[in-house]
Backbone:
């Protein structure tokens, strides 16, 4: 039987709230030439809705309010620009996409004054057309107003380029941030999951300094000018400049940074590279513990070249990863119960006597508020542009519905204010998908395959329609195309939500009271008198019976 990880008390920082996972795919690594970014926004208090900010013109002197994305705390106002772009979710009308994961890092560098990471993303989406413009915008904002967040990694992409950027503040006494941004090669993939991933800088390359930024001659890496000096002054780094390591300075490893975070990156890479097994001891934290926390082992590269081309559907499927088939598979072991549930009660870890235990933390998790797979199609006609594949709640039991970044409104089922975290609404997709998922967790090995089949039918149909949608809008003017895509996106989201309402009722009826009603040709079987056929009463699996037998009355 698989065991949860065991650690001595006192050697780790608390790691109970690690959220979010991002996957990145360069245009020459994708099957269709698009760039791809995925993002799961995970939090136990996050209500899933589709962000929408319509394009707008603003008068001279207008101000934009800034509120902390996580708490809603007012942060102040900044001057508004003359024109802001249409933003649907985390993609704008120019197909610029931004995602993130939080890694915390050194607490003395956190601040609450300035612009938080969430606001940075959405302000950049409102104002920028390309990834490079977005990086410049985000850095300029924190230099001017300060950075009001913990350590963060951003995924920033447009139809041509994918970037990863690590950022942490300078503490309460300084504005600006310690940051570094790296362009991912077009034929590579990358990932981050609540742990800083950029290590060394290309200091041997020719560089130029522009303002407070150092940029390599090829333009594929940039960082804050005083990055190394700052680390030295704080005592984070004492070696030669060529030995500088961003991750080691600002987000030094503890066990959870590996087992809870880097393991998700490893699991993504393993789907597309036959060489990832050799990194398991590193990603699982095994080497870290065996060396007495002195050596994490051979670190995974920041990016890898995949063994094959990767489709958008591949990324959707990776967002549903449970570490399936690996020693970390969360659906296996005693904690998964008889029906292989992914649900774990309490926090990510628990203390018992003098020992700290940790559960696995896969990409697909019950506390996801919403997730997306952004497909940035530079080759596509401008009317259709990118596709923002959007889903709510646990990706393993959700459906990614195509939203186009030029639409003029979002579907009612995805709309902010249609229900909230404490007010149920049958017209809210988030609540409907939660009903299905939470019922499925009670008998996951039985219900998940039924959910997956319906999920696959919808997504296969959506994938097959992409070409016809492109063709339909190819000769439309912008207004006609917007209307067409708005109607399509909204109608499909509403249809999926209605289907999941029916699925919730079907699963409740079929698996009522731990039984399983017989189904034939899509209908519940009846007996010869027209009543319900006697249901099956599946027993616990034999392996689980061995677990409970010693505690059960016997002859």
Residues:
């Amino acid at each position: 039987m698989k065991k949860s990880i065991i650690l001595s008390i006192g050697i780790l920082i608390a790691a109970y709230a690690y959220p979010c996972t991002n996957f990145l795919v360069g245009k020459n690594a994708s099957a269709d030439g698009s760039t791809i970014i995925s993002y799961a926004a995970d939090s136990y208090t996050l209500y899933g809705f589709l962000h929408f900010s319509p394009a707008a013109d603003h008068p001279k002197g207008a101000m934009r309010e800034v509120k902390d994305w996580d708490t809603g705390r007012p942060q102040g106002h900044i001057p508004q620009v003359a024109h802001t772009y249409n933003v649907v979710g985390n993609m704008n009308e120019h197909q610029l996409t931004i995602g993130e994961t939080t890694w915390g890092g050194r607490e003395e560098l956190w601040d609450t004054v300035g612009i938080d990471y969430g606001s940075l993303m959405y302000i950049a989406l409102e104002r920028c057309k390309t990834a490079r413009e977005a990086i410049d915008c985000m850095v300029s904002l924190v230099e001017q107003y300060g950075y009001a967040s913990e350590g963060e990694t951003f995924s920033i992409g447009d139809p041509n380029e994918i970037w990863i950027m690590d950022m942490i503040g300078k503490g309460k006494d300084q504005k600006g941030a310690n940051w570094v941004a790296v362009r991912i090669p077009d034929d590579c993939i990358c990932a981050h999951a609540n742990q800083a991933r950029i290590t060394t800088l290309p200091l041997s390359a020719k560089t130029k300094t522009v303002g407070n930024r150092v940029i390599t001659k090829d333009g594929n890496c940039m960082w804050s000018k005083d990055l190394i000096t700052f680390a030295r002054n704080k005592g984070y780094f004492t070696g030669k400049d060529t030995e500088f390591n961003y991750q080691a300075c600002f987000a030094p490893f503890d066990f959870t940074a590996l087992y809870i975070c880097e393991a998700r990156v490893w699991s993504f890479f393993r789907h597309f590279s036959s060489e990832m097994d050799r990194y398991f001891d590193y990603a699982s934290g095994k080497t870290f513990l065996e060396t007495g926390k002195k050596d994490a082992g051979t670190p995974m590269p920041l990016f890898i070249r995949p063994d094959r081309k990767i489709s958008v559907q591949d990324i959707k499927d990776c967002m549903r990863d449970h570490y399936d088939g690996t020693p970390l598979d969360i659906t296996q072991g005693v904690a998964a119960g008889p029906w292989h549930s992914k649900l774990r009660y309490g926090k990510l870890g628990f203390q018992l006597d003098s020992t700290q235990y940790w559960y696995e933390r896969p990409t697909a998790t019950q506390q996801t508020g919403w997730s997306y797979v952004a497909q940035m199609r530079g080759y596509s006609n401008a009317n259709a542009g990118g596709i923002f594949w959007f889903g709510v709640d646990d990706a393993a039991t959700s459906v990614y519905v195509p939203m186009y970044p030029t639409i003029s409104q979002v579907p009612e089922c995805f709309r902010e204010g249609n229900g909230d975290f404490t007010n149920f609404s049958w017209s809210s997709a988030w609540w409907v998908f939660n009903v299905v998922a939470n019922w499925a967790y009670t008998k996951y090995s039985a219900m998940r395959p039924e959910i997956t089949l319906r999920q696959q039918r919808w997504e296969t149909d959506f994938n097959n329609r992409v070409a016809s949608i492109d063709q339909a809008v190819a000769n439309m003017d912008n207004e006609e195309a917007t209307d067409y895509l708005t109607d399509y996106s909204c109608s499909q989201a509403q249809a999926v939500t209605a289907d999941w309402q029916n699925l919730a009722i079907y699963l409740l009826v079929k698996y009522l009271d731990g039984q399983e009603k017989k189904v034939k040709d899509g209908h519940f079987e009846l007996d010869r008198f027209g009543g319900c056929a006697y249901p099956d009463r599946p027993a616990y699996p034999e392996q689980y019976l061995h677990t409970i037998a010693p505690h059960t009355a016997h002859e």
